[in-house]
């Protein structure tokens, strides 16, 4: 014990006393997703906005991590682990146990010339987990290539060389039991029980090669439900190789008995791989003559409104923007359009404005731009043409234009000439799909992938019939859920593994949806049909969201029945229907931070709430996390009462540089139970509306002149 304490104290003394420039060595990612050595964490943080995915392979374990530097100081990760564990006897081995875990780390002290970075963290903290640990860690850079770390850990990180808890009020820690249901925070385990020292160092030999060494405080004890790993030494060693920017490969020797291989792939949401974008340059602003500016009207015989409409429609088509309505008076032009190309509505506003300067008569000084989606106008941005002419090539033009623009609710249809779409009313296409599906609240998952046929028919701009047929190519019938862990609740989600497992094409959805504007600042949606893979019925939604407000309120009411597992047209198998819905509050904190609170009734008839926090970067990458709690008692209903998850969404244009409104997302959630389950509806109003409102436009207004 004295020798181990001496080693840790020596490392900590070196960390604190050696002056150096702060964090100059390249950052390593450990086997639990966050910046670290091998198994042990470090106190240094990645740059804000950095997102990393790590795959770890060793005998008896596979782990997939997703991590993000959420703020300058706060980082988080979500992990999916398939590992061999000791069974309930602590002797036999259960192979391939599935585990989800979530981790957080907060940097308390920034590294400086004489002070190390100091961080506090919790690993696998939301539920009693087999990897659950808490720690305090300090890291100091020494020169440009060396970083030294020392820390104190609890839980799994307090199992090798542990000593009495220095936090005297929590001397013991509850024993991990796999049979303990999820559904409550594991606060009784946080910083409880024995503690142990850990430490280590990393050295970057050159731009590509580096080495790692650590003294691990994880013992991997041979006891019930513990991961299987023989430990003959507390020391781990690793070699890192970076073949490309944003790629790290690590080969590590673990505890003198095993070898692991890991690969980390990093991108930064603030620096997209496609450079600044490869879209075509915008048309220049056409500057009017002094006489044209002074005019109070224009000659409609020389410039017929129909000709102006046709010319503007042709120019916008080149930009991937569909003109849907136009009104031109002596000095004002109001344009309604659908942006089908640019992720940023601010960029679309800029492109439309530029095209209008090419077409509109000189007397037209005021441009009113009204973007629409799903046939509903979302907002109105009023811009003076003379501001466009004056600011185009000036420094600070984006900020100046945003300050001069006016944002309000979209106008009525009165006076607007509606322009029929030139595209066919019917459209369809094939695409691959991939999904992780819950097999019940016991934590099992199945991987599903195949081909999806999607089609839609536009009855009117606001009314669309859409559907999808999928053919699974991967799903395994033998992985169906067999245990009902919530016998007193309807199996509203835990039977998900039964759906569409017959190996034939199935109807995923088929519904008619109507969007509307029932009043100022109000938006509506009504959907009816087979709304998702497990439910059909009717869903209604109303949203109040002023254009210039950070706050919004919504209400959703659904009456649905559970579909048959063959995913045909029937509802007889379960004979279950339910009235469900929520009242929702939305708030935009600015800087890309969004929040959502949902309170209401869930699919199993339980009542509760859900909180979602999201960070959207200027390049469109979004990381969100949610926590839901319902009245369902976790002791009676297993994992039903408490759910949480993390979602990462990456826009296509971030990856390719080509303008697009498509994105790709993945959700990592805790075990899916029957409590707290919501209807899966495509096209909820807030997601459609907010990107054309003032706060979201402000976040990406720098793209107005692109």
Task: Kindly describe this structure.
- It is a single chain.
- The protein has 706 residues and is mainly beta.
- It folds into three domains: 2-268, monomeric porin ompg (Porin, Beta Barrel), CATH 2.40.160; 290-422, GMP Synthetase, Chain A, domain 3, CATH 3.30.300; 426-695, Porin (Beta Barrel), CATH 2.40.160.
- Helices cover 12% and strands 42% of the residues.
- The chain contains ten helices and 32 strands.
- The protein has a 13-stranded antiparallel beta sheet with strand order 20-21-22-23-24-25-26-27-28-29-30-31-32. Strands 1-2-3-4-5-6-7-8-9-10-11-12 form a twelve-stranded antiparallel beta barrel.
- A hairpin with a 5-residue loop joins strand 23 and strand 24 (522-530).
- It is globular and about 90 Å long.
- The N and C termini lie far apart (63 Å).
- Mean pLDDT is 86; it is low at 1-25.
